[in-house]
Specification:
Blueprint (H helix, E strand, L loop, with lengths): L2 H13 L15 H20 L8 H4 L5 H18 L6 H48 L1
Length: 140
């Protein structure tokens, strides 16, 4: 601390607390200050109306007094009922016809895959037999 700072501290300590003989006064009441207070009060009221105080909601109040397991079972039950009641986008005849056509395509694809695998096996056998016959020719 500088010498000047120390001197100021000493003076402040020696003089003791400063007491003011004048009482503290309120700000002057003017038309402008009362308009400001009214505007502030209206703003606070609007804020309270647009943002009501939040209340703590417990899971029990949300679940209607049911336990978590009971609420989950009820939700599943309602979901299943709504899925059964929902009309399907295609009539049953169109769905079965489409399913039949898909089944035929799947079977045709399965046959094509089986034929391709069989062709691969045949080619592999032919190569193996050719290699064996070539190796016999070399040794003779």
């Amino acid at each position: 601390m500088s010498n000047q700072g120390a001197a100021a501290m000493n003076r402040a300590q020696k003089s003791g607390p400063v007491k003011s003989s004048e009482p503290r006064s309120r700000p002057q009441k003017t038309t402008l200050s009362s308009i400001g207070q009214n505007l502030d009060r209206e703003r606070q009221q609007r804020a309270r109306q647009s943002h009501p105080p939040r209340t703590q909601t417990s899971p029990q109040s949300i679940q209607g007094g049911m336990s978590e397991d009971e609420a989950m079972a009820r939700a599943i039950q309602l979901s299943m009922v709504s899925n059964q009641a929902r009309p399907t986008s295609m009539p049953a005849t169109v769905r079965t016809e489409e399913a039949r056509r898909q089944e035929e395509e799947d079977q045709a694809l399965a046959r094509a895959i089986a034929e391709s695998e069989e062709e691969q096996r045949r080619q592999h056998r032919n190569r193996t037999q050719n290699q064996q016959s070539e190796s016999k020719c070399v040794t003779s």
